[in-house]
Specification:
alpha/beta, Rossmann fold, 2 domains, 13 helices, glycosyltransferase activity
C-alpha cells in the first residue's frame, strides 16, 4: 500500500508539529517508509521536489495570495497545487491519503472526484469553526479573509472526506454542533517517550521544590505564566522556585525580577528538567485542541497543576482517585493555593506510575500506531 501524507505542520517545533510528526512516523512504521509520500504545504519551507517529498513553499507575493482567495482557497493552496497533488496520487498509485488538517476542503473534494478508489481521511487538530471565529475578531484583514475561507473549506472537507478524525469526545461535540456530523475516529495527542534519566544530570539548583513551566514563545503561554507568578507564586515561594523552559522563552527573561523565577528558555533536552521537577504547571486560558505539554508531563508521571484549557481532553481520562491528589484542575488563584496546601501535606512523588500507565494506554507512540492501523484498515478495507 502506498500512502500520501499532507500537512503544513511537519516542521513546527511544538503544538500541531508534534502531532503531525507522530502521524507521519506511525504511518511509516505501519506501511514502510518506502511507501509513504509527503506533501508539505507549510509556508516556512523552501520549495523543493524530491523522490517522496514535495514542499510547495510560500505563495509568490500578495497577488498570488489574492488569486488563491479568488479561487476559493486559503493562502496554502492554489488550484495548480491541488491539481499537482492529484497527479502525484495517480502517478504513484496512492491508495490512502492522510490530510493532516481540517480546512483543506477543495483539496479533499478534488481528490475524491478525480482519483478513483482512494481513501481520504481528515484529521482535526482542532475544530476551526470554533477557533477561527475567535481568532478573526482581532486578525489583520488578510487573515480575516483566510479565516472566512477556512471556515468554508472545513465544511467542504467534512462532507467529502471518507473519515473525520478528532482528538476526543469534546471535539466531536463541536463537530456535531457546527456540521451535524459525528467523528469516525478519535485520535488524541500522542507523544514519543524519549526520556534520558541519567543520574548526575540534575539541572536544578537550590533546596526548594521545583515547579516546571514548559512552552514556547506564544502569547497565551506568556500571559498564563505572568498571571501565575503575579497571583499565586508569591504565596508559595517560601518552599518553591519556578523553572521556565522552551524555545523562545529566553526573550521574556527580563520580565521577571525574582531570584526564584529561573527563565532558561531553549534547552537541548527537556528530559532532565522533566525528570527532576517536583511538578509541572500549565496555567493556560487560550488555544485550541489538546495541549502537547500535558501529554509530556503525564508521560513522565509528573504531578500536574493546570487550567481547564490545559486539561482539555485529558481530564475525563484521569482516574478519579488521582484527581485532586496528583492532577489538579485550577482556574483561579484560590484553586491553585488550595492545591498547594494539599500537596504540602505529604512528600511529593516525582514519578507517579498510574499516570505513566495512562500515557502508555492512550498517549504513547504505541497507542498512536494502533489507532492509525485501525483507521487505515477500516477506510481502505486492507488488512495490515
Amino acid at each position: 500500500m502506498r500512502v500520501l501524507f499532507i500537512s503544513k505542520s511537519i516542521h513546527d517545533v511544538s503544538g500541531a508539529g508534534v502531532g503531525s510528526r507522530m502521524h507521519l512516523n506511525v504511518l511509516k512504521e505501519l506501511v514502510g517508509e518506502e511507501n509513504v509520500y509527503v506533501v508539505d504545504v507549510g509556508v516556512s519551507e523552501t520549495a523543493c521536489r524530491e523522490e517522496k517529498y514535495i514542499a510547495y513553499g510560500k505563495y509568490h507575493g500578495i497577488l498570488d495570495r489574492l488569486n488563491r482567495y479568488l479561487e476559493g482557497n486559503t493562502y496554502l493552496f492554489s488550484n495548480k497545487i491541488i491539481g499537482d497533488i492529484c497527479q502525484l496520487i495517480k502517478n504513484e498509485s496512492i491508495s490512502f491519503v492522510f490530510v493532516d488538517d481540517s480546512y483543506y476542503g477543495n483539496l479533499v473534494k478534488t481528490i475524491k472526484e478525480k482519483c478513483d478508489a482512494v481513501a481520504v481521511v481528515t484529521f482535526f487538530h482542532d475544530v476551526k469553526a470554533e477557533l477561527f471565529r475567535i481568532w478573526i475578531k482581532n486578525a489583520p484583514w488578510y487573515d480575516k479573509i483566510d479565516f472566512r475561507i477556512g471556515l468554508t473549506q472545513e465544511k467542504i472537507s467534512t462532507t467529502h472526506t471518507d473519515a473525520n478524525i478528532v482528538l476526543n469526545q469534546n471535539e466531536n461535540k463541536l463537530l456535531k454542533r457546527y456540521y451535524n456530523v459525528d467523528a469516525d475516529f478519535y485520535f488524541p495527542v500522542c507523544v514519543s517517550k524519549n526520556h534520558t534519566q541519567q543520574m548526575g544530570l540534575n539541572p536544578y539548583c537550590g533546596n526548594k521544590k521545583h515547579i516546571l513551566f514548559v512552552g514556547t514563545y506564544y502569547l497565551p503561554n506568556i500571559q498564563g505564566l505572568h498571571w501565575f507568578c503575579d497571583t499565586v507564586f508569591d504565596n508559595v515561594k517560601e518552599n518553591y522556585d519556578i523553572w521556565v523552559i522552551g524555545k523562545g522563552l529566553e526573550k521574556v527573561r527580563d520580565e521577571f525580577d525574582d531570584d526564584d523565577i529561573h527563565v532558561i528558555g531553549f534547552v537541548d533536552s527537556l528530559s532532565e528538567y522533566y525528570s527532576y521537577a517536583d511538578m509541572v504547571i500549565a496555567p493556560l486560558t487560550d488555544g485550541g485542541g489538546m495541549k502537547i505539554k500535558t501529554a509530556e508531563a503525564i508521560s513522565y508521571g509528573k504531578m500536574f497543576l493546570g487550567s481547564s484549557e490545559s486539561l482539555y481532553g485529558y481530564w475525563e481520562e484521569i482516574p478519579n482517585d488521582l484527581k485532586g491528589k496528583v492532577v489538579f484542575k485550577c482556574d483561579t488563584a484560590e484553586e491553585y493555593l488550595n492545591a498547594f496546601n494539599k500537596i504540602d501535606e505529604k512528600p511529593i512523588c516525582k514519578k507517579n506510575e498510574e499516570l505513566i500507565t495512562l500515557y502508555d494506554r492512550l498517549y504513547s507512540e504505541n497507542a498512536a500506531y494502533n489507532i492509525m492501523k485501525d483507521i487505515v484498515e477500516k477506510t481502505t478495507g486492507v488488512k495490515l
